[in-house]
Amino acid sequence: MNSDYSISTDKQKLDIPLIHHFLVNDSYWANNRTLETVKTSIKNSLCFGVYSNNIQVGFARVVTDCAVFAWILDVFILKEHRGKGLGKLLMTAITNHDQLQTIKRWGLATDDAHGLYEKFGFELIKRPEILMQKTADPS
């Protein structure tokens, strides 16, 4: 992988307009999110930005109590930077992050990246009948 790529959890470096644009225009899961919702979600999450020469090219956020539970959301790499191992780099940074080392239950939802997440120990829910959800807004 190119050494020009880096990952940071510094929220000051995040390109929020880029994140919002991707989520609304290029994701299948968040096409109706407002900019204000994106800002609030970033404020209340542990965020990971992927950068090429200090320009943001990817993102993920983790909602967590930093003790037992973490949910990974809004994972993306811009199309022109895919195929370079950045998804693996990002997931490695997330799963190795100091604040997440005591996590007992990780979660995420994906329509199309099962192969990536399986490399990090994720698997389909074994007992989906015990899980429940309340959805007010699909994004």
What does this structure look like?
The protein is an alpha+beta fold and 139 residues long. It has a single domain (5-122), classed as 3-Layer(aba) Sandwich (Aminopeptidase), CATH 3.40.630.30. It has four helices and five strands; from the N terminus they run E-H-H-E-E-E-H-E-H. The protein has helices spanning 16-25, 35-43, 86-96, 114-118, and strands at 5-8, 46-52, 55-64, 69-77, 105-107. The protein has a five-stranded mixed sheet with strand order 1-2-3-4-5, with helices on both faces. Strand 4 (69-77), helix 3 and strand 5 form a beta-alpha-beta unit. The longest helix is centred in the middle third of the chain and has 11 residues, at 86-96. It is globular and about 45 Å long. The mean pLDDT is 95.
- Report mean pLDDT, rounded to a whole number: 95
Helical segment tally? 4
**Proportion of residues in helical segments:** 25-40%
**From N to C, what is the helix and strand string?**
EHHEEEHEH
The main sheet comes to: 5 strands, mixed
The CATH architecture designation is: 3-Layer(aba) Sandwich
Poorly predicted regions are none
Radius of gyration in whole Å, from Cα?
Answer: 15 Å
- Principal-axis shape equals globular
- Ends distance: 32 Å
Number of domains: 1
Number of strands: 5
User: What structural class is derived from the secondary structure elements?
Assistant: alpha+beta
The CATH homology group name: Gcn5-related N-acetyltransferase (GNAT)
